Amino acid sequence: AQKITQTQPGMFVQEKEAVTLDCTYDTSDQSYGLFWYKQPSSGEMIFLIYQGSYDEQNATEGRYSLNFQKARKSANLVISASQLGDSAMYFCAMSHSGGQGNLIFGKGTKLSVKP
Amino acid sequence: GAVVSQHPSRVICKSGTSVKIECRSLDFQATTMFWYRQFPKKSLMLMATSNEGSKATYEQGVEKDKFLINHASLTLSTLTVTSAHPEDSSFYICSASLAEDEQFFGPGTRLTVL
Q1: CB A114 within 8 A of CB A13
Q2: Is the separation of the CB atoms in A57 and A75 below 8 Å?
Q3: How do residues B32-55 score in pLDDT, each as one tens digit?
Q4: What Cα–Cα distance (Å) separates residue B44 from each residue in A1, A4, A31, A43, B54?
Q5: Which of A34, A56, A105, B20 is the most buried (most CB within 10 A)?
């Protein structure tokens, strides 16, 4: 069965510093996709970054990068130069067959950025 | 970019009443829409997958007669919480899939049942 594990219920980071949010996954699929979403207090889900299981390079999107280590089954999110607006819940998610079709979410990590 | 809207954003209702939540893809046609439920401080739980013109596929443990899903068009899916009770109070989020490449989330609907 597929499973996503986020072991950090809460994280603090100083403004302008980098932070890594952990995510490990378990799947027997050969093809799968990994996602990170940001959920501010308003509740909306904001897509941040995607990594396909066959992608050889780590995904990057602006200040977000995904540290994909396939052998370890980890897909950590790195946020560089943290901003106060980064304070939110962050969810790691996985789908079958690489696409977004049916997502399984982790429990989330609450990130708080200190001024 | 692709936008998904939900209406209403907040609803408060009395126990025993039914509540309908709409999910619309505003600028694209969504072949598949998903409904999620989120309990406070907890992760999203997939409730059902909805394909236009066919019956929704419900996840294990989700009552079909309790949570009625209608996907009448490529841009609209509705979730009706029938005979709502306080334990149905939650944050409901829909998402819409554009082909198999991307999925876009709605802003969510906060349901409070008194």
Answers
A1: yes
A2: no
A3: 899 999 876 667 888 998 888 888
A4: 17, 12, 23, 11, 24
A5: A34
Closest Cα in chain A to B39: A107
Which residues in chain B are closer than 8 Å to A43, comparing Cβ atoms? 38, 91, 93, 107-108, 110
3-state DSSP of B56-113: CEECCCCCCCCEEEEEEECCEEEEEECCCCHHHCEEEEEEEEECCCEEEECCCEEEEE
Residues A41 and A71: their CA atoms lie apart, in Å, by: 34
> What tokens were used for A1?
């069965």
Which residues are CB-neighbours of A57 under 8 A, at least 6 positions away?
none
Residue A98 — left, alpha, or beta (φ > 0 → left; ψ -120 to 50 → alpha)? left
Verify whether the Cβ–Cβ distance B95 to A101 is below 8 Å: no
Residues in chain B within 8 Å Cβ distance of A112: none
Residue ranges with strand state E in A3-108: 3-5, 10-14, 19-21, 24-26, 32-39, 46-52, 60-61, 64-69, 74-79, 88-96, 103-105
| Distance, CA of A93 to CA of A70 (rounded, Å) | 15
From chain A, pick out residues whose CB is under 8 angstroms from the CB of B91: 43
pLDDT in tens, B7-18: 999 999 999 999
- Pick from A100, A105, A107, A112 the residue to mutate for testing the B interface (most B CBs within 10 Å): A100
